[in-house]
Amino acid sequence: MILIDQPIWPAHETLWAHIVSDTSLDELHAFAAVAGIPRRGFDRDHYDVPAQRWSELVALGAEPVGVREFVERLQASGLRVRQRDR
User: Fold this and answer.
1) 3-state secondary structure the chain
2) pTM over 0.85
3) What is the rounded average pLDDT of the residues 26-55?
């Protein structure tokens, strides 16, 4: 399942959300390709996406979740890259 958090992360004069997969990186990269998200937006375990794309990504099938659930499901998947390992 592709998950998307809320666009609450400020950077580069906009707010950002993240998309992850709780299944596999292959699933995440495939979703990003279909959505037209460039590979340069990938950061080890997630893609950064600007707030203005949030509704579009939900319409494409990303499941909106809160930040806590987002992190918990990513950790449970085994795909989480810890901050200190970046």
Assistant:
1) CEEECCCCEEECCEEEEEEEECCCHHHHHHHHHHHCCCHHHECCCCEEEEHHHHHHHHHCCCEECCHHHHHHHHHHHCCCCCHHHC
2) yes
3) 96
